[in-house]
Write a structure and sequence with these properties.
CATH superfamily: MFS general substrate transporter like domains
Structural class: mainly alpha
Order of helices and strands: HHHHHHHHHHHHHHHHHHH
CATH class: Mainly Alpha
Distance between the termini: 10 Å
Number of helices: 19
Shape: globular
Strand content: under 5%
Oligomer: single chain
Subcellular location: Cell membrane
CATH topology: Growth Hormone, Chain: A
Membrane topology: Multi-pass membrane protein
GO molecular function: transmembrane transporter activity
CATH architecture: Up-down Bundle
Number of domains: 1
Largest sheet: none
Protein name: MFS transporter
Organism: Streptomyces lydicus
Helix content: over 70%
Amino acid sequence: MYLSSIDRAPKDGADTALRPAFAAIGRNVLALGAVSLITDISAEMVTAVLPLYFVLILQMSPAAYGLMDGLYTGATALLRLVGGYVADLTLRRKAVAAAGYGISALAKLGLVAAGSSVGALGAVIVGDRTGKGLRSAPRDALISLSVPETALGRAFGLHRAMDSAGAFAGPLVALGLLSLIGAASPRAFDAIFITSFCIAALAVVVLLAFARDHRAARPTTRTVSPRAVGDLLRRRGVRRLAYAAGLLGLVTIGDGFVYLQLMHRQSVPAGWFPLFAVGTNLVYLLLAAPLGALADRIGRKAMLMCGYGMLFAVYVLLCSPLTGTAATVLTLCCYGTFYAATDGVLMALAGPVLPPELRTTGMALVQTVQALAYFGSSVAFGAAWSQWSAGPATAAAACAVLLAIALTAGALARPRVEEVTV
């Protein structure tokens, strides 16, 4: 296998590409997609209101919110490696994923118990992200092991589309509760957190009942060990993917920062804040599967670069003098397209470069680098907002995206001949 397979599926997969999408992808991907759909209803109910909760109810500064947002996205990143390694070592990827989903579900109740204590909220957020860190790589590895290599883009695209369907519905549920109880009332947020827990618990039940583990016999020529994990980073293809994930993560600011800027620019009432996430996730829902399939045809690297071009457009729009409904809709369309073109595509890029027995660990490695970069990005952007205000901070982020696109394109460029298996 050559590094060129990162960017282009083999031509002999044409017959697979002609099959009906669901037949090629299989029931296991659909089951895992259903779990993610339900989980994201729960998760996005919380994610859609956390910026509002921190800024409106707890009166946090942009710098303090940046720290919390960093905790939410990357503070437990190293646990991804732990979860990935344990899943590969035991060949129980489903069990590790189920543990992660369960921990995240219990954390929703912790948000109610934490009240207005910033320290307790930080601890609960770390617990929630611990669950996400444990489950993400085993789930993505199960997806990659459930389909042929030529269908990876479609498989991850369909999974992310189902995931984003939940992400679309979650903020609507939160919006309904805020409208019913009142956005300024802490009781509304407690109701959101408790409802979120109930939905997350349902996702765990669906995972245990319908998803299947991949229990192929372990190859005798390779072992899962700390040394084998270290050998992953000696592969040039894996190093380049990790470098790209970290570089692109550093220039991606949190959703909350984007939506807070839109709220201030458009003078949107606080109770309608979740609609920004609804708009983004609707575009993501509509485009994730088509763009995943397109990535299999035109090249996954090209799709990744186009996605970050959309992120650049989002930052430019936030810095521009354009206001009004049309500008807001355009910004959210670009933002949703960014997610649709990058989220599953990065894991589809990783699949062909990683050996099956270390597939989960390798994906966890890439995700860990990206999550740590997100943490640094959130903290840095929050500090820049406090120091310079939102406009200059976002302009600096836009310039950083252009530089990251150029460096990433160079890092993932195909050499003439380079093997990624040994």
